């Protein structure tokens, strides 16, 4: 791990994505955060693999080995990951500007990077509040060092135990559950296996928020012409999370009880509220936003 560089200094494009588009790590960050207790650098972590794809430096040799293997399977993985971040930025802007949402529960936050949710939200609504939830200790350490304050709260929690997240006093204090909340499940549900009841987790969260709330999700898939799903899943075997890629038909039920926001559940590259038929390299992830009835 190289924890002494500075991602905050990276140039970004219009979407807030690191300008270096060739997959080369473009910088880390100076957090003063070492390796927290309980971290096993030899065990690849989903958060750190993702950090590597985004050009961060909060990753270890074991993470980079998995990431490089995934890149060999499909060199466009970096672009798919960046498309996911671009979607997240578009989605937050849409939620604040078009839907009037001021409260966010971001589960599966990931390591801090460019354009974190509270920073994007604050651009359009300085009073927006964001609760970040993750279960990776390194994510929590960095998030506490870099993201807390300014409308952001960091909470340890596990998507597989949504009731505990909802009962957490810090969550209850930060968010008013009588007013709409956007629950962000961005690039995290594919780390919840079928036998861990991901649909139940989403339903619990949906039932806890009032009408007019939004559920936002992106989900990895092996649909599409170039995907090498089984090999990708295999690459995560030694990691801290298993990877369950799902088809469009398998992802659609996560929207039960929700009205999809146009353009509906579609390729992440195509989810643009104002121009839904963006062409591009359609692969990797589906994205959608649903409105609680
Ligand atoms: C691929 S990153 C996504 C980060 C961010 N949401 C984004 O899309 O840019 C997935 C994150 O989900 C977290 N995660 C995985 N399984 C989780 C679970 N069961 N509960 C909470 N967080 C989880 C990982 O630690 C990691 O930080």
UniProtKB/TrEMBL annotation:
GO BP annotations, alphabetical order: methylation
Keywords: Methyltransferase, Transferase
Name the record gives this protein: SAM-dependent methyltransferase
SUPFAM superfamilies: S-adenosyl-L-methionine-dependent methyltransferases
InterPro entries: SAM-dependent_MTases_sf, SAM_dep_MeTrfase_SAV2177_type
Catalytic activity, EC: 2.1.1.-
Molecular function terms, GO-annotated: methyltransferase activity
Residue ranges, annotated region (Disordered): 1-38
Natural source organism: Actinomadura gamaensis
Pfam families found in the cross-reference section: Methyltransf_19
């Amino acid at each position: 791990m190289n924890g002494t560089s500075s991602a905050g200094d990276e140039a970004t494009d219009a979407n807030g994505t690191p300008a270096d588009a060739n997959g080369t790590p473009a910088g880390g960050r100076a957090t003063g955060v070492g390796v927290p207790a309980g971290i096993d650098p030899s065990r690849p972590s989903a958060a750190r693999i993702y950090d590597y794809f985004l050009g961060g430096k909060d990753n270890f040799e074991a993470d980079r080995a998995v990431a490089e293997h995934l890149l060999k399977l499909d060199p466009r993985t970096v672009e798919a990951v960046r498309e996911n971040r671009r979607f997240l930025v578009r989605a937050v802007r849409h939620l604040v500007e078009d839907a009037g949402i001021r409260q966010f529960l971001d589960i599966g936050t990931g390591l801090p990077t460019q354009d974190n949710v509270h920073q994007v939200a604050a651009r359009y609504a300085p009073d927006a509040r964001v609760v970040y939830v993750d279960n990776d200790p390194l994510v929590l350490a960095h998030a506490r060092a870099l993201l807390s304050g300014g409308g952001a709260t960091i909470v340890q929690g596990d998507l597989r135990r949504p009731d505990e997240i909802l009962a957490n006093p810090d969550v209850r204090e930060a968010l008013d559950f009588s007013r709409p909340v956007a629950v962000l499940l961005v690039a995290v549900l594919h780390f919840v296996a079928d036998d861990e009841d991901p649909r139940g987790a989403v339903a619990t969260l949906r039932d806890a928020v009032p009408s007019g709330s939004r559920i936002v999700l992106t989900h990895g898939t092996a649909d599409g012409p170039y995907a090498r799903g089984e090999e990708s899943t295999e690459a995560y075997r030694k990691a801290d999370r298993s990877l369950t890629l799902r088809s469009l038909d398998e992802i659609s039920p996560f929207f039960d009880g929700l009205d999809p926001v146009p353009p509906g559940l579609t390729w992440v590259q195509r989810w643009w509220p104002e121009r839904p038929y963006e062409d591009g390299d359609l692969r990797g992830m589906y994205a959608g936003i649903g409105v609680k009835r």
